[in-house]
Structure formats: structure tokens, C-alpha cells
């Protein structure tokens, strides 16, 4: 009988998943997806091979579960951060800043590499988790235009432009002590790109 982590089977399963996801996150950053094995993740997570196979039949299933968990956590984090400020320009600055900080915190295979590693249907399932994030950005842009803080433009044209600008790891590929300055520059760039004339006072 495998040792139960926590006070119940439900808690045990949650803690196993948390340990496995933490181990996978580290290995993605250090080694890349292709070099990862379920056995290696289980060893680093200090869970038995049987336990990990009970949750994830292969490493692709593990990656999908991990990305879904990360996406759900991030969507909640983003919504809370945006809701904490009222001005649409500040909301847009908050969105850009958080997107880049998360990009700096986590290392996942680039979109093309991930698409090649997974079946098309599986990759689409993962990609669908970007929809709430994009919807949040669209809501910010629309609110900014309605309030007069942003000039009237087609938000569906701005969306892919902003998303593409924030997708490059080159922005945050700087020494740690230079990261915040790089993010500040990106925030100013996006705000000016959408027509903000007066930047938030503490972000100039």
C-alpha cells in the first residue's frame, strides 16, 4: 500500500500533482521537454513511478495537465491584478507587466516546438487556455476606448499585435537586475502603441 501524503486521498492526490508539477517546471527550465521522462520527474518529485503513472499515462499527458493547471492559476491571478485598479490605462500597464513577469518566471517549450511535440488536437486544447487571457486584454482595450482614455481603434486588430509584442522572450532575456527596467520599457512601448498620450505617473 503506497504511503498517503496528507490527511485524505483527495489531499494525497493534490499533493502528488503539486510535487510532480514543481519537478516538471524545474526540468522544463533546465533540460527542455524532449529530455524529460516520467521516471525522472517522479524521482525528483519523490513519488513512486506507480503513483505518477496513475495520474499521467505519458509525458505528453503530464505536460497538458501542467499547462492547464498553470493557465487556470494565471487567469485568476491576472483577473485579480486587473480588478485591483480602475483606470483602463493602469489596467493595460498591469496586464503587460504581469504577462512579462510570468514569461520570465516560467519556461515552456516555444509554441512551434510544443505544437510539434503534441498531437494537433492536444495542442489546440492547450492553446485554448489563452482565450480568457486574450478576452481580458480585449475588455481592457474596449473599456479604455469607451472611457476616452484610448483612441478608437479596432480591438481585434490591436489584440494580435500586442500579444505578438509580448510573446518574445528576448524582452526578458536580460540579467535579473535589469528585468524590471526592461519590463518598464515594454509597458511604455505598448501604451504608446495603442495611443496613450499621458502615461501613468509612476511608470514614466
Automatic annotation (TrEMBL):
Pfam families: TetR_C_24, TetR_N. InterPro entries: DNA-bd_HTH_TetR-type_CS, Homeodomain-like_sf, HTH-type_TetR-like_transc_reg, HTH_TetR, KstR2_TetR_C, Tet_transcr_reg_TetR-rel_C_sf. Residues 14-74 form the HTH tetR-type domain. Keywords: DNA-binding, Transcription, Transcription regulation. GO terms for molecular function: DNA-binding transcription factor activity; transcription cis-regulatory region binding. The keyword Transcription applies. Residues 37-56 bind DNA. PANTHER family: HTH-TYPE TRANSCRIPTIONAL REGULATOR BETI, HTH-TYPE TRANSCRIPTIONAL REGULATOR RUTR. This is TetR family transcriptional regulator. It comes from Amycolatopsis antarctica.
Amino acid at each position: 500500500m503506497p504511503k498517503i501524503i496528507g490527511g485524505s486521498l483527495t489531499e494525497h492526490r493534490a499533493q502528488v500533482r503539486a510535487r510532480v508539477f514543481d519537478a516538471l517546471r524545474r526540468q522544463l527550465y533546465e533540460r527542455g521537454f524532449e529530455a524529460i521522462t516520467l521516471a525522472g520527474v517522479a524521482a525528483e518529485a519523490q513519488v513512486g513511478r506507480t503513483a505518477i503513472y496513475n495520474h499521467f499515462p505519458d509525458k505528453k499527458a503530464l505536460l497538458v495537465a501542467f499547462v492547464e493547471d498553470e493557465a487556470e492559476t494565471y487567469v485568476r491571478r491576472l483577473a485579480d491584478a486587473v480588478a485591483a485598479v480602475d483606470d483602463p490605462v493602469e489596467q493595460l500597464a498591469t496586464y503587460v507587466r504581469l504577462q512579462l513577469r510570468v514569461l520570465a518566471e516560467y519556461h515552456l517549450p516555444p509554441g512551434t516546438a510544443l505544437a510539434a511535440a503534441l498531437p494537433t488536437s492536444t495542442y489546440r486544447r492547450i492553446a485554448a487556455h489563452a482565450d480568457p487571457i486574450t478576452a481580458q486584454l480585449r475588455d481592457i482595450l474596449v473599456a479604455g476606448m469607451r472611457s476616452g482614455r484610448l483612441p478608437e481603434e479596432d480591438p481585434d486588430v490591436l489584440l494580435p499585435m500586442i500579444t505578438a509584442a509580448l510573446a518574445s522572450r528576448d524582452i526578458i532575456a536580460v540579467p535579473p537586475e535589469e528585468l524590471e527596467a526592461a519590463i518598464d520599457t515594454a509597458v511604455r512601448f505598448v501604451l504608446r502603441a495603442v495611443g496613450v498620450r499621458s502615461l501613468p505617473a509612476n511608470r514614466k
